[in-house]
Description:
By secondary structure, the protein is mostly helical. It is built from nine helices and two strands. A hairpin with a 2-residue loop joins strand 1 (about 95) and strand 2.
Amino acid sequence: MSKNLxxxxxxxxxxxxxxxxxxxxxxxxxKNEKLLQPYTYISQVPGKQIRTKLAxxxxxxxxxxxxxxxxxxxxxxxxxxSSLLIDDIEDNSILRRGIPVAHSIYGIASTINAANxxxxxxxxxxxxxxxxxxxxxxxxxxxxxxxxxxxxxxxxDNYQCPTEEEYKTMTIRSE
Length: 175
């Protein structure tokens, strides 16, 4: 019964996404909402949240104030979900988290734009943390993400099999 309920919820999310795609925005907030539709869509079916859980686990030693820890968790999720939007396009995926991929509903251009927009919003949140190294860490993680994904694409498109060490490095970078 709960599996069927989960499937019903996924169908409802999909149908709501299709409906909202055709509504015209009138205010700046509604325009922003329209720009973020692909991101909002993928965020409605959350993943395992392992990255955010790890941040909270490490906070036992780091003692970061709660409001900054929440912001860091949000930033991590924004970076992760926006990278999934792009990854689904690059990998010609059909499903993500059991529902049709965002670009199959909103189109490739809107999905890429939403993913990039979220990366910029996340950068603003990083800068708002007020920690001088936060932007450097964010930038390095973004670069590593693209290096890892780029190597995966290179190997796939050039029919090359990486060494075990190259593959391990790629998986670390693209996470």
